[in-house]
Amino acid sequence: MPQLGRINQLIVLHKSDHGLFLDGGDLGEILLPTKEVPEGSEPGDELKVFLSRDSEDRLVATTQKPSCEVGEIASLEVISVHPRAGAFLNWDFPKDLLLPFKEQNQRVKEGEIAVIRVLHDEVSDRIIATSKINRYLNQTQPRYKTGDQVSLIIQERTPLGYMAVIDQRFRGLIHESSLQHPIRIGESMTGFIAAVQPDGKIDLSLQQVGYGRVTHLTDRIVEAMKKNGGRIPLTDKSSPDEIGRAFNVSKKAFKQAVGALYRQRRISLETSGIALIEKSSD
């Protein structure tokens, strides 16, 4: 059955002066307004549409797609706060997404970034957001292995570091001591599994773990040199901040990767940086 707050593929039933009516199954016929109708659409065609409610709470279809759907976790900007209803979030859609006060872990302010999950509230039959996302995350033992690459959304700050949502399903901790540069709540990034504890808790790293980290970093350094005319202005004397800004790794990891490249005779070490060694064409 078609679902409110998600992308659906629906069949065109018939045309009208107001647009196309689509087959919504148990939801009945759903209007796709004229201004939204793709050119050349005819009865029998299957269209990919997003289902929402208009300003009068009528179920409508649209070809416009928000940045996130029901069931997804995302970081969205708070664009206004209503004193009774809650906060309204920008999700790249004409009608802003409501984050009701009762669904807020803590009160948010205009201009802040809120990490939320999009819900279909079955009581009101509306699309809303909640920042109480932990109850929707997987509580079973994760099957990750050390070194696995994962997608992260930074959720909140804790005394130990930052909690992050992993692959939309789990939660893990990035220890403060492992950070090479500041990170922000709501930031999306790639991370790596550092360890999975016996109790199921996950430790995360923003750098690759073990030897894979070095080999991956050497490729990134070579690619950066190629894009910068064959050299980069970083050496083993560069500050940790400079290295962190360039590659999001520790100075120790950078030196290991540079050492590996030097031993492979792929780079030369200069006073002001490192340079690629041109391969001779015999």
Please, could you describe this protein's structure?
- This protein is mainly β.
- It has four domains: 7-62, OB fold (Dihydrolipoamide Acetyltransferase, E2P); 73-134, Nucleic acid-binding proteins (OB fold (Dihydrolipoamide Acetyltransferase, E2P)); 149-205, OB fold (Dihydrolipoamide Acetyltransferase, E2P) (Beta Barrel), CATH 2.40.50.140; 211-276, Arc Repressor Mutant, subunit A (Orthogonal Bundle), CATH 1.10.10.
- Helix content is 13%, strand content 39%.
- The chain is elongated.
The CATH architecture category of the largest domain equals: Orthogonal Bundle
For the record, give the distance between the C-alpha atoms at the N and C termini, rounded to a whole number: 65 Å
Number of helices: 3
- CATH fold-level topology of the largest domain: Arc Repressor Mutant, subunit A
State which percent range the strand residues make up. Answer: 35-45%
Number of strands: 18
Average of pLDDT: 91
Give the H and E element order: EEEEEEEEEEEEEEEHEHHEE
What is Rg? Answer: 25 Å
CATH-assigned homologous superfamily of the largest domain: Winged helix-like DNA-binding domain superfamily/Winged helix DNA-binding domain
In helices, the fraction of residues equals 10-25%
**Largest sheet: number of strands, sense, barrel closure:** 5 strands, antiparallel
Detail the poorly predicted runs. none
Chain-wise SSE layout:
Elements: E1 7-16, E2 19-23, E3 29-33, E4 46-53, E5 59-62, E6 73-82, E7 86-90, E8 97-100, E9 113-121, E10 126-130, E11 149-158, E12 161-166, E13 170-175, E14 188-196, E15 202-205, H1 211-227, E16 231-232, H2 240-247, H3 251-263, E17 267-270, E18 273-276
Parallel strand pairs: 13-15
Antiparallel strand pairs: 1-2, 1-4, 2-3, 4-5, 6-7, 6-9, 7-8, 9-10, 11-12, 11-14, 12-13, 14-15, 16-18, 17-18
Helix pairs in contact: 1-3
